[in-house]
Amino acid sequence: MSTPIVIDCDPGHDDAIAILLALASPEVELRGITTVAGNQTLEKTTRNALKVLELAGRTDIPVAAGADAPLKRTLCVAANVHGESGLDGPDLPEPTAKPVAGHAADVLAEWLEPGVVLVPTGPLTNVALLFERHPDVKERLERIVWMGGAIAEGNVTPAAEFNAFVDPEAAALVFSSGIPVTMIGLDITHQALFTRAHADRLRGTGRAGKAVAELSDFFQRFHESRYGFDGSPIHDALAVAEVIDPTLVTRLECNVEIETASEYCDGRTVVDRWLVTDGPKNARVGIAVDARRFLELLVERISSLP
Ligand code: RIB
Ligand code: CA
Prior knowledge:
Layout: E1 3-9, H1 13-23, E2 28-35, H2 42-55, E3 63-65, H3 79-82, H4 104-111, E4 117-120, H5 125-133, E5 144-147, H6 162-166, H7 168-175, E6 181-184, H8 186-189, E7 193-195, H9 196-203, H10 207-227, E8 231-233, H11 235-244, E9 249-254, E10 256-258, E11 269-271, E12 283-289, H12 291-303
Helix pairs in contact: 1-10, 1-11, 4-5, 5-7, 9-10, 9-12
Alpha-D-ribofuranose (RIB) binds next to α1, α6 and α11.
């Protein structure tokens, strides 16, 4: 019995790999993709989602474009990480499909039937708009698995992780929505580095494997220069992997609040890791990951794609 999911994303190298992992895994059924501005502009993230589906031969999967800017703030893209296209590195096929009509926040309300898990892997702007425009969706949305946030250090500022930093107001609205959020943050994604050895195992497989290897080659530049890592955290793929096999991640139920009015800490996910507050336990925060099993799952599934 596979779990139906919808991915809301800002492709982005790791978003692209997350989509391919979902397509390669029988434990999940990718019902649709919505796109949001984040790593790059909405036009580019939407085009990139379509290119990934073209690469995988899955243009049957619908794509709906969403917000082109955060709720209140000015968009800051991550060209330093993902390049001008948002998917620099591999030569991906031109998309033949077009996005479906309608804003992602409205299309999500149609797609989110009981049992569907929403997997946002970018800023939470579309999800916040979904809750604002269609509050009734909360009656049928049981779980959100979000790649974002951090218990400890951020990756955009010392305090904030990118997806939370781009739209803190949206994140605050989602974490106070009453829908439990499984938070896959930097603390665990940085524990599972996809290395050149993993990429080399994919290079000679199908066109998807070759593309993932080349995406990883480009993604590695940033992580080597910033952190001195000998690999890259494929952040968004871990969110999908948590739905595929929840035993890969150890979670703690606790309170998470989002800072939205601070000189130094805007976008910080304030995680009550040691349960010292009386705040509602609105999140299940990833505190450990079985990195070896996650990376083996990723390589094995991507290598199975054409
Ligand atoms: O901080 C990492 C997250 O921000 C990932 O989802 C990456 O794709 C970017 O969206
Ligand atoms: Ca992302």
